[in-house]
Amino acid sequence: MFHSYAQFTSFLVLCSALLSASGCVQRAESDVVVYSALDEEFAAPILDAFERSTDQETSVIRKFDVESTKTVGLVNRIIAEQDAPVCDLFWNNEIMHTVRLQKLGLLEKRSWNVDPGWPSDMIASDGTWCGFAARARVLLVNTDLIPDASEYPDSVADLADEKWKGQCAMARPLFGTTATHFAVLREIQGREATLKLLTQIRDNAVILSGNKQVAQAVSSGTVAWGLTDTDDAVIERDLGRSVAIVYPDQSSDQPGTLRIPNTIAVLKNAPHSVAAGLLADYLVRPETEDRLAMGDSSQLPLFRDAKFPPRVLPETPVRWMQADFENAADDWESWASELNDLGLGK
C-alpha cells in the first residue's frame, strides 16, 4: 500500500489530524491530573463527587504517593516535570512544600472565590495557592498520668521545661508539620531564640519520627504529653483513650495556636488548565470543608458558610497564630542544616 517510509509517515499525520477533528483531543482536554498529598481515603470521595458534578465527561486522574515519601515525593516529581508538566492541580496538606513550589515559579496565579477578609496567612500573596480545611498544632495529654487539668502543659515552650524531662514528646522538626511549625516560630520570635528553644527541647523531650507516633506514645502512656496535629490527636480520643486535647499558647503574650491548611494550586503551564481551574474552584468551598470536618481527621473549616463544626474544636474560641508561611519557607536549606547540626535530623 505504501511505497516509501515518507508516504507512511504522511498517512500517520493525516490520521492524527482526523482524530483531532473528530473530538478525541477535546475529550482529553476535559480530564485533569491531580497529585494529592492528602490521604486517598479523604480525597478520593471528593474527587469522585467532582466527576459526577460536571456536565461533560471529566476524569480525575489521581496520583497519591506512599506514606514514606508523601508530600516530598510529589513535590520532587513536580519539580522534575517542570519542563513538561504532567500534573494539573496539586492538593497538599503540608503548606511549606506548596510555598516551595510557589517560590520556584511553578504555580499559576489565579483568583479564588473565598470570603471577604479571608485570613491573609491562608492565601498566597500572589494568588498562586489557597488554603482551606486546616489542622491545628495541639498538645495531647494522657489524663491517667496527669489527672488534674490545672497541671496540663499549655505552651509549646513547655517541651523545654525540665519538670517534664523525659515525659513529653515531639516529632523531628525537619519534617512535616513540625518543620513548618518551628519555621513559623523562627519568623515570630527570631532565629536565635528558636534555635535555643529547639536545643532545650532536644535535651528535655523524647524526639520521635512523626506526629502519629507522638499521639500513640501519649495514649499508650509511654510519655505524659506531646505536641502533635489535631487529626492524629482526635483519632486517639475517638478510640476512647485517656487523653485530652489542649490548644496551646492562648495567653495574650503568647503567639496562639498554629493552623496548617490544606492548599490547592494549579500548575503553571498545566496541560489541562481549564479543567484544573474548575476543580480548584470546586474544592475550595464550604461543602468540601464540611466533608473534611465530618471525616476521621476532623479538619477545621475557614469558610463562614461551613455548616459542620468539627468535633476536635473546644467549646471556647481559639486564638490562632498569625503565620507568615512565605517568609518561613525562605532560607530552608541553611535552616535545615542548622537543625541537623543540633542532632534533630535523622
UniProtKB/TrEMBL annotation:
Source species: Rhodopirellula maiorica SM1
Segments passing through the bilayer: none
Domain of life (superkingdom): Bacteria
Protein name: Extracellular solute-binding protein family 1
InterPro entries to which the protein is assigned, alphabetical: Ferric-bd
Signal peptide per UniProt: 1-27
SUPFAM superfamilies for this protein: Periplasmic binding protein-like II (SSF53850)
Keywords: Signal
